[in-house]
Structures are given as C-alpha cells and as structure tokens.
Amino acid sequence: MRLRRKLGRTLVKWGVLSEAQLRHALDEQKQRGGILGRRLVDMNFVGPERMADALNRFHMRRRLSVDHIRIDPEILELVPRELVWTWTALPLDLDEDELVVAVPDASVSECIAALSDATGMTVQPVTCPGEEIKRALLRHYGALEKRIGRWLLGTRPYAKFKFETYVVGATNRRVYEVAMSVALSPGGRYNPLFIYGEVGHGKTHLLNAIGNRVLQERADNRVVYLPAVRFADELLRAVEQNKMDEFRMAYLAIDVLLLDDVQFLADQPAVQEEFANLFEAMQAGGRQIVVTSDRPPREVETLADRVSSGFGAGLVIGLESPSLAMKTAILMEKRREHNWRIPDHVIAKVAREFDGDVRRLEGILRTFSAKMELDSHITVDELASSVLSVVQSDEVTGDLWKSSPAGGT
Length: 409
What we know:
- The protein has helices at 4-13, 19-32, 36-42, 48-61, 73-76, 81-87, 109-119, 130-141, 145-148, 173-184, 203-217, 228-240, 244-252, 269-284, 305-312, 324-338, 344-353, 358-374, 380-392, and strands at 90-95, 98-103, 122-127, 193-196, 223-227, 256-260, 288-293, 315-318.
- The chain is an alpha/beta fold.
C-alpha cells in the first residue's frame, strides 16, 4: 500500500497545493524517487514549515481501515513480530527512512520511540481502530502466543469472586466504583490501578472481580491472575534457563495483569528491575495492570523508586476497615455462599465483638458450622459461647483464618 497519493489528494483538498502541482510532483517522484513531502518542498510548491504542519495533521489525525489493505512483505520484515504485538502497531508504508505505522493512539510517544529505535527510521503514526490492527497483525504476522505458550504464567481469575457478591458500603464504595470502571474500560483512565489495604479487606476479591468482568465483556482478552511471589519464582527460573526473552514476551501478550501482594517483591531488587521493565512496556502498550498490596507504595520498604513512581502514574487507592454494618453484611454473604446454618444473632455477635479482619471472622463461622454438624444436640447459644470463648482466649488454631485466594475476601 502506498500512502503518497492519498497524502497528495489530502493536501490538494486542504488547499496546500494545486492539482497541477500534485501531478507534477508525482511525476518527478516517479522518475527520481524520494518522499513526496520533501519533493514538494524541493520544488518550492510548499514551504518547509507549512509542509511539516500538513504532514503532522495528515498522519496524526487521519483514521484509516487496515482490514483489507495489502502491505509489501519487505515492509513487514522491518519490525519484529514481538514488537508489533507489544505495541499493537502495524507497518504500512516506507519512503526512504520514513516508516508509516498504524497505531490505536498516535499520541503514545513511547511506542513511536520504540519503533524508531528498532528500525532506525523516522516513524509517522496513523491512527486506526485497535481491533482492526489486531486482526491485521494476526493475518500478516501470526499469533504471538504460539511461541510463548508455556511462559504464560498465572491463572484465570477465580470465578467465585465477582462484583455481584462484593458487599459495598461507605468505606469501600469509591474503590468498588474505580474497580468497576477499570473492568469496563481496561487500559483506560486508571492504569495502573494500585489497591492497598490490610489483610481481609477485600483486595483479592476486587482483583479477581475485575478480571472476571473483563472476560465477561471481552471474552477474547487474555486476563492473568498472579501472586507476586510466583512472579519472582518464575523470573528466577527464566534467568536460570536463559529464557528471559520468552518470559518477557509472555507478559507482553497479556491484556490484563492482576498482580496480588506486590509487597513480597520489596526485598528483591533484581526482580523489581525486571518487573519495572515489563510494567512500563505493558502500560505503554495499553495493557491494563492492577496491583494489590497491604500498604501504599511509598510505605513498602525497599520498593525501588522506579517501581513506586510507576504505580503513582496511575491511581493509588486504599480500602478502609469495614464498619460493623459492613462486617455483618459480609458475614451474611459468606453464610449464603457456604450454605451455613448459622442464626443472624450469632453472626451479629461475631461481627460486634471481634475487630479482626473478615477472613478471621469467616474462620470463626466456619468453625462454628463444623461443630454444629458434629454435635446435633448442642444448642446454638451454647455452641456460640463455647466457640467465642476459645477465640477470645487465643486457643484457636491459626488455620482458622489462614488466607488463601480461594477463601479470601
């Protein structure tokens, strides 16, 4: 595909040059080669400053369709497959040292810089719908996942964690609304999103709820849930096996990354450095990143400034301790989820008398339900007094509230 004739017609339409001048310039270019814009300046048809403004307007504002265009194979070879998939960028046309590339957003300067560095050329972006570019990339370059399948880490979001089962109240409504916004428009306004809060305040639930809603709205998106400790383990394995290129490409193929408990990377500077590289590349490529931690970035000791400032470029938002009403509502939701036969007044008593996190309170109810099934003759009030007294004396095993993604809130 050659864009020079479309550029020429556009310049005529804008009154930058006449039809006769365009025909003359195209004839000269056909005989002598070169870039149309430079030829117009050399022939004194257009001044250099006005030409620069016109080119910028043409390339930056024009949208085109790439679904059915034909592209010279030599142009496709200029940019590696990994790079075009990373930036959702499709090479279209080449004139000497100027490469025209279709991108979803021509204002992404990091994308243009990366393509320029890779090709050694000046890159002119043309905006085009991202889904059209992805279809064209699949047609011209093939699917990137074929080369990196075994390095696509993590799991799909846990299906049980959904927005519909997340109890919303005054202390978490803002975080809920932001998380929903991210789920409906990943890679948009809140990217990256950093959610912090104490254990049992609902971070894991929200993290997975975002992923599940993304998949509900965009079934073809690749959404990955990943504990930070696993990221560190797999990174070290990739280094040991000399597979870092495959490891990086795996992450750059993700549409939405849900990273849980990032504070566990705090004492690993080498891991943080690689995470920062991936973080910046994914963000610049429009991939959504959602991260959770038990503290805000500035309070995570030994977290590199580069990583911390990267989170600050998006939105950092905290989850507050749930109120009594919220704790009661959450525990009632847990009762419904697990089908526990526990009276309302016992749930209210647990919520009222204990200040621990919701996971801990859920553990108390789980113990209560298990004991009810083992002893059918004991009264509810007797059992409640027995269980609660054990909890208050700190004789209950820590397994009651051991946190896990499958049972967290």
